[in-house]
Amino acid sequence: MDVKILPEEDVKTHESLSARAFFEQEWTNWITKPEGYSNAKIYDIEINEIPGIEHSYVDVGSAGVIETPTERMDVWLKKGSFVTVISFTGPEYSFGKYSELFDLMAGTFYLEE
Questions:
Q1: Which end of the chain is less enclosed by CB atoms within 10 A, N or C?
Q2: pLDDT tens digits, 6-26
Q3: pTM score of the predicted model
Q4: Taking a C-beta distance cutoff of 8 angstroms, is the pair 61, 38 a contact?
Q5: Distance CA 14, CA 12 (A)
Q6: Which residues pair with 41 in a beta bridge?
Q7: Structural domains present in the chain
């Protein structure tokens, strides 16, 4: 599990964007989409009154390379100029076994006023 808190100065100019709009804008800028991304799932969520999105996809690996498909889930939480990204990556064959634990841990996120 990985937790990133984005620098407030990078987020401040997008303070008025919703969690989904911020995600869609930033995700596009962050990485080249992996193979298998066309089947990505994105859901609006809320954890302890903080709006966010849950984003998951499978990276099936590059063409011609033998690789175990990897599943990734991100939870992006945004409140004003605060954004955190909580993510979990694992082999597709065992991802479901640990995704419940990830959901439980991510669901405990709390932000003081």
A1: C
A2: 888 888 888 899 999 998 888
A3: 0.80
A4: no
A5: 5
A6: 56
A7: 2-106 (3.40.1000.10)
Calculated CA dihedral for residues 99, 40, 11, 31, nearest 10 degrees: 110
For residues 53 and 40, is the Cβ–Cβ distance under 8 A?
no
pLDDT digits (tens, 9 = 90+) for 76-99: 999 988 999 998 888 877 787 888
- 3-state DSSP of the chain: CEEEECCHHHHHHHCCCCHHHHHHHHHHHHCCCCCCHHHCEEEEEEECCEEEEEEEEEECCCCCCCCCCEEEEEEEEEECCEEEEEEEEEEHHHHHHHHHHHHHHHCCCCCCC
